[in-house]
Structures are given as C-alpha cells and as structure tokens.
Amino acid sequence: MESKPSFPTHEVPASKALYERAVKLMPAGVNSPVRAFRAVGGTPVYIARGKGAHIWDADGNRYVDFCGSWGPLILGHAHPRVLAAVHAAAERGLTYGAPHEGEVALAEKVISLHPHLERMRFVSSGTEAVMSAVRVARGATGRPLVVKFDGCYHGHVDHLLVNAGSGLATFGTPSSAGVPEDFAKNTVVVDLDDRAGFDALVEKRGREIAAVLIEPIPANNGLLLQRQEFLEHLRKRTTEIGACLIFDEVISGFRVAMGGAAQRLRIRPDLATYGKIIGGGLPVGAYGGRKDLMDHVAPLGRVYQAGTLSGNPLGMAAGLETIRVLEEENVHQKLESLGAQLEERLCDIFRRRSANASVVRMGSIFWMSLQAGEAPRTAGCIESAAAARFAPLYHFLLRRGIYFGPSAFEVAFLSSAHGEPEIEALATALNDALGAGIGR
Ligand SMILES: *Cc1c(COP(=O)(O)O)cnc(C)c1O
Fold it and tell me: Is-above-0.90 flag for pTM?
C-alpha cells in the first residue's frame, strides 16, 4: 500500500508502474526497507542509470544524487577507471572460490593504509563484517558481552538488532521480531556521549565485556558527531578491562580519510569493519585488526568464518581501482573543500531564511538537521517534528531534481563527481523550498 501524504509528492508514472509490479513480488516491493519511501510517502523513484553525480529515473527525470548508494560511490556513478577494472576482471571469470591475486593486491593496499590492520578478511557485506568482528572479539576474549550505542547501526545481525533495555546495565531488548530475547541478553546498549553511563556499566560488568562496538562517526541516525574525549575514553577503558574496541567504519572507512575515522581521529581500534567504499559499488565488506586477535580465525584458530563469494574478483578489482583513484587524484582533499563550500552555502540559506536548521558535516558526509539549537550528539536529541518537516521538503527537492536518501535520518554524501553546479542546484532548490515555507 502506498501512503497518501498531505503535501504534493513527486509524480513518477513509470516508477509507479514498476512499483506496482514489485509490491506483488517483494515485501513492500523492495530489497531493503528504507527504499520503500515509507518515511517520506509517495512512490519510490526507480533508477534507470547513473553517471557521475547524476541519476536518471524510469521516467527519464535527472537528479543530482546526494545518496550515492548510501556511501560506496565516492567517485560518483560509473567511474570510467572503475568500470574498466571490473570489465577486465570479468573477462577473467566472475568467481573462482579459490585464492587469486586480486584479493592479495587489495589486502596489501588496505593494510598499508591502516596501521591498526595487521590481518584482515574480506566478506560480502558490512553486516557480515561486523558479525565476524564481534565473533572474533568474543572468541579471543572468551567473554560474552557486546556494548553498542543507541543511534549506531551495524547491519542486521540478530544480536545487534537490540534497543536499550530498561535501567542501566540490564541486557537489551530485540528491536526486530524474529530475534529471541535470549539473543539480546549479551548485548548492552549505552547512549552516545554518555561517559558516566558507560563507566557505570564497565564498573559493574567490565570483566564480561568482549567488545565495545561503535561507529566512530555515527552516520546512521543523522550525523551524531562525538566528542574526541569520549572516543578516547572508550579506547582507554577498553584497554584497562581487556575488551576489544571495534570501530565500525563501514561508512567512514575511505570516506573521511584514506585511513578512515581511525586516522582522522588518531585512535587505534583493536578491530575494525569496512564495507561500502571498499567494494567500489560491488558487494564487499572486510574486517581486521590486531594479529593476535585475527589469529583466532579458522583455520588458524577456532573462530569460524567463511564465504562462497568472499574476495570476489570483481569486487576486489572495483575496490582496488577506487582506492587508487582516491590516492592518485587527492580526492579527500578536494572533497574536504567542496564539503566546506556546501556547508557554508546551506548555512547561509538557513540563516537568511531564519530557518531553525543546521548543517552537520564531516568531510564529504553531511546532514541537514531541521531543528533549532546545537547539532545533536545522541539519538534521543532528534525531535520527531524535525523528521515530519523533512517529508514535504524531500518531495520538493525531488521535483527540483535533487535526490537524497528518503528519510530524515539518513546522511548525504558528496562524490568527486560533484562540483559547484551540483551544490548550486541544491542551494537554489533549498532556498526556494524554505521561501515557500516548506521544510521549516
Ligand atoms: C551500511 C552499514 C552497515 C551494514 O552494511 P551492509 O553492507 O548494508 O550489510 C554496517 N555498519 C554501518 C556503520 C553501516 O553504515
């Protein structure tokens, strides 16, 4: 069923026809929930193709793409060098289920860029990477508990689909049906930016904690930038209690610096997980860290982890070529200044339109927070009214050829294919929306 919002939505007949076929085939017509447009109403836009900073829908409408497939496309769509690398790999066969040079080459490159990665493994998604890293932490420490933070997302691993329980240091409760209460018992959820809450937990259950898992730059519930001191405190305390600090860098890896958030924040995690950019647009994830921990992975040790398509030749080629372009073309530096330019432009519009809104940004990741006051650091600080303001703005922007992820809680991305014209297109549309009273 399609929702019927009270504001004008973007009319896309060809997408609508596809969606009507899809809902008879897949739950809500989609293969990942947010794509169903439930958070913004209206018809999901069906994408026919992408090139550079742009995508075209089934009706032939063109959009500036600020979603970038949720993060992987730091070079934009269909980058010629990435396509050529994938094509060349495909000519040599799509998968072998056996070792090959491509995985060695990508692992060498990734490890050379991350001093905390002494050993690593490739998997096929971010979810798998996190699931495997947590298993290593538990296997290596012989402890059961995982600490995660409210507002961070780590994929759809059963025992991580968990919300805070009632009261401090109790176990969490499943946030998804199909996850037995028992699975959630070994997951404890703490608030971001809550040093006292974290310390109280450590005081009480420190010896049971295998891992403290965090997105160092939380980017799945708006952009909840953390204080440097908070992250440093997690590093210090985990070392003291003999627990693993796991950085989930599935978004931040290769995005905020070549060496991800660990490099940018100068904090060395024990284990880290990657996805999105590391596969250059193909389904690749990775996890790795200290050698003594990774030596627990089978067949060296007793932590089992495997994958039929792990280290897939096409994914390895796309990832390696993407990283090479990032290095050779100094992409992070360019994205940093483009990001600053975008932030300045949007902030200026918010100010001039007296909108209660701000831009939160880290490099090429940005998020428009449609509420007054300081940028939120915790999930609980995001007002529901801010999310409600987003839906009509979203459709206004779509009609003006601007594509964001369809939810107020999703961050946006710049790519090396974006430039001043794309920023101007967004700025102009946003200015007009606010002028018409939309999004405020
Ligand atoms: C996207 C994401 C995941 C899950 O990755 P998938 O490839 O979608 O399974 C895990 N952690 C973070 C931080 C993510 O952003």
Answer: yes
